[in-house]
C-alpha cells in the first residue's frame, strides 16, 4: 500500500506557501471572517484508515458540499421520480446562474447548482416532518457522528443577503417546480449549506459513496449501489459547475466543492479525500484544493481513468 501519510504531507509542504491567487468568499459575510491561510487535508480509506495534515480537524462551513447530502436523502425518499423535477446535465454556467432556467422552464440542469439544490430542498420538505431536524439526524446517522451541527450564524448571515437564491427560488416557483412556501424552502436550503464539518468528518460521511457494502452503525444501508453510482456520475460531470470538465481533466475523480473552500473527492472502492483552503478561484472552487488533488491523484496514479 502507498504511504499516503507521507504523500499528503509532501504535497501539503509543497503548496503551503505558494502564491494563492484565490479570494475568500465574502458575499456571505460570515464566510469572509475565516482566516485565508487555513489548509487541511484528510484522506480516509474504505477500511477506515485515516490520514491527516494541517487543519484537518477544524470545522468549517461545508456550503455546497451539503448538496450531495440533500440529494442523497431526496433520492432515497423519492426514487427515480426525482428526475422529473431535475435534470442530470452539466450546466456550463456559474453555480448561482438564473439565465438557463428561463430556457429550461424552471427545471434545473442538475442537483449540484443552487437552483437544483433548492428544488431538492423543496422535495425534502414534502417528505419530512421536521426538515431541519430530520436532515441533521440523517447526516448524523450516515456519519455515525452526533457532533454534526448547523451554524446558525452562517445560515442567518446568508439569509440576510442571499438575494440571488431568493430570486432563483421565486423564479422556479413561477414555473410550478417549487411546491412549498418560498421562505420555508430558502430557510431550509440556507441551513443545509451552513453545516459545519472538518476535513476528517467530511471524508467519513462520504464513505458511503466509495464503499458498495456500506451500512450505518444502526445496520441500515443508505442508498442502492445503482443510486450511489449515479450520484458519483453526476458529481463527476457537474460537481464543479462550469469547471467540472477542468476538475475531471486535472484530478479525475468525482468530487464536489463549496464556497467555504472545501472540496471532497471520491475514489470508488478505495477512499474519500477532503481538502480545505478558503481562497476560491474565479469559478468559486478552492484554488489550492484543486491543485492539491491534482498532485495527489498524479503522485498516487489513482484517478478513475
Ligand atoms: N450557500 C451558497 C450559496 O447558495 C452555496 C454556494 C456554493 O457553495 N457554491 O450561494
Explained architecture:
The chain has 305 residues and is an alpha+beta fold. The protein contains 12 helices and 10 strands. It has helices spanning 4-16, 66-78, 99-103, 114-127, 131-143, 152-161, 163-174, 182-193, 199-205, 225-238, 244-250, 287-299, and strands at 23-24, 40-45, 50-54, 60-61, 149-150, 195-197, 255-257, 262-267, 271-276, 279-280. Helix 2 (66-78) crosses helix 4 (114-127), helix 2 packs antiparallel against helix 10 (225-238) and helix 4 (114-127) crosses helix 8. The mean pLDDT is 96. Glutamine binds at residues 63-64, 95-96, 114, 158, 165, 193, 258-259, 284.
Question: What would you give as the CATH superfamily?
Answer: DD-peptidase/beta-lactamase superfamily
For the secondary structure, the number of strands is 10
Summed over residues and divided by their number, the pLDDT gives a mean of 96
Kindly state the percentage of residues in helix: 40-55%
> At the third CATH level, what is the topology name?
Beta-lactamase
Secondary structure class reads: alpha+beta
Provide the gyration radius in Å.
Answer: 18 Å
How many helices? 12
| CATH architecture descriptor text | 3-Layer(aba) Sandwich
Low-confidence stretches: none
Short description:
By secondary structure, the chain is α+β, with helices and mostly antiparallel strands. It is built from 12 helices and 10 strands. The protein has a single domain, classed as DD-peptidase/beta-lactamase superfamily (Beta-lactamase).
Amino acid at each position: 500500500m502507498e504511504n499516503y501519510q507521507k504523500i499528503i504531507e509532501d504535497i501539503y509542504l509543497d503548496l503551503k506557501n505558494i502564491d494563492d491567487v484565490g479570494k475568500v468568499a465574502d458575499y456571505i459575510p460570515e464566510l469572509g471572517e475565516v482566516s485565508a491561510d487555513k489548509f487541511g487535508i484528510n484522506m480516509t480509506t474504505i477500511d477506515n484508515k485515516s490520514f491527516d495534515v494541517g487543519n484537518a480537524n477544524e470545522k468549517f462551513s461545508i456550503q455546497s458540499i451539503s448538496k450531495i447530502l440533500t440529494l442523497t436523502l431526496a433520492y432515497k425518499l423519492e426514487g427515480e421520480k426525482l428526475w422529473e423535477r431535475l435534470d442530470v446535465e452539466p450546466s456550463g454556467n456559474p453555480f448561482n446562474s438564473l439565465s438557463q432556467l428561463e430556457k429550461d422552464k424552471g427545471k434545473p440542469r442538475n442537483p449540484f447548482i443552487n437552483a437544483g439544490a433548492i428544488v431538492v430542498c423543496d422535495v425534502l420538505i414534502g417528505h419530512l416532518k421536521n426538515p431541519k431536524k430530520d436532515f441533521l439526524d440523517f447526516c448524523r446517522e450516515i456519519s455515525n457522528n452526533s457532533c454534526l451541527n448547523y451554524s446558525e450564524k452562517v445560515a442567518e448571515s446568508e439569509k440576510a443577503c442571499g438575494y440571488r437564491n431568493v430570486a432563483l427560488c421565486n423564479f422556479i416557483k413561477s414555473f410550478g417546480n417549487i411546491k412549498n412556501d418560498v421562505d420555508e424552502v430558502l430557510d431550509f436550503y440556507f441551513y443545509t449549506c451552513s453545516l459545519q464539518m472538518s476535513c476528517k468528518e467530511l471524508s467519513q460521511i462520504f464513505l458511503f459513496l466509495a464503499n458498495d457494502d456500506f451500512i450505518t452503525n444502526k445496520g441500515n444501508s443508505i442508498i442502492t449501489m445503482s443510486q450511489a453510482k449515479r450520484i458519483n456520475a453526476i458529481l463527476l460531470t457537474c460537481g464543479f459547475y462550469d469547471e467540472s470538465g477542468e476538475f475531471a481533466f486535472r484530478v479525475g475523480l468525482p468530487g464536489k466543492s463549496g464556497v467555504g473552500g472545501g472540496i471532497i473527492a471520491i475514489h470508488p472502492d478505495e477512499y474519500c479525500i477532503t481538502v480545505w483552503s478558503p481562497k476560491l478561484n474565479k469559478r468559486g472552487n478552492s484554488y489550492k484544493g484543486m491543485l492539491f488533488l491534482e498532485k495527489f491523484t498524479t503522485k498516487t496514479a489513482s484517478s478513475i481513468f
